[in-house]
Design goal:
Blueprint: H1 2-16, E1 26-36, H2 40-47, H3 53-56, E2 61-65, E3 74-77, E4 82-90, E5 93-98, E6 106-117, E7 123-133, H4 139-165
Antiparallel strand pairs: 1-7, 2-3, 3-4, 4-5, 5-6, 6-7
């Protein structure tokens, strides 16, 4: 009886495929930078709240759980289309994750937005993204989806720069 059970389990696992037989995940990284003619603390004060993304990505955003800027805070983008959670932070950065399944064909999404001081009066925006594109075998599609992200977040960095450098009324 035990031998029959073991054979049935082995056959079932073989039919599903073993992890060693699975295709290598298509992990993608994007690293973008933008210099800003403002001190890092001023830049972060202008663009560093968790839902400031709504302004620089032109998407509705609302905080739905936790406290803004703290690990565990949850934001809702595009009226529930995307949910993201802060999983790490410093004084001038936050790292967030998106649950699997939020974007079709994508998993293991993590992003990091940071402002790095360069001089007393200048800084650099750094946006890094790591995700898995589930389009294994579709290299052209993977490249196209990555390039769309690079373009979208590149534009977001330009908007963050403009917002940060804009003259402020006293």
């Amino acid at each position: 009886m035990m031998k029959a059970y073991a054979l049935a389990m082995a056959a079932g696992l073989a039919a599903w495929g073993s992890p060693a037989m699975a295709e290598t995940p298509a992990y993608q990284t994007i690293h973008l930078e933008q210099d800003v003619a403002r001190p890092a603390a001023q830049v972060w004060a202008r663009i560093g709240r968790f839902c400031d993304i709504g302004e620089w990505l032109h998407a509705p955003c609302r905080l739905v759980a936790g406290k803004d800027g703290e690990v565990g805070a949850v934001r809702d983008l595009n009226n529930g289309r995307v949910i993201e959670v802060i999983v790490g932070r410093t004084d001038l950065s936050y790292t967030y994750a998106m649950p699997d399944g939020m974007v079709e064909g994508q998993a293991f999404y993590h992003g990091n937005l940071a402002v790095v001081p360069v001089t007393k009066s200048t800084s650099r925006l750094v946006y890094s993204i790591l995700y898995m594109d589930k389009g294994a075998g579709d290299e052209a599609g993977i490249k196209e989806r990555r390039e769309k992200r690079v373009q979208r977040f590149g534009e977001a960095l330009k908007t963050m720069k403009a917002l940060s450098e804009a003259k402020r009324d006293k």
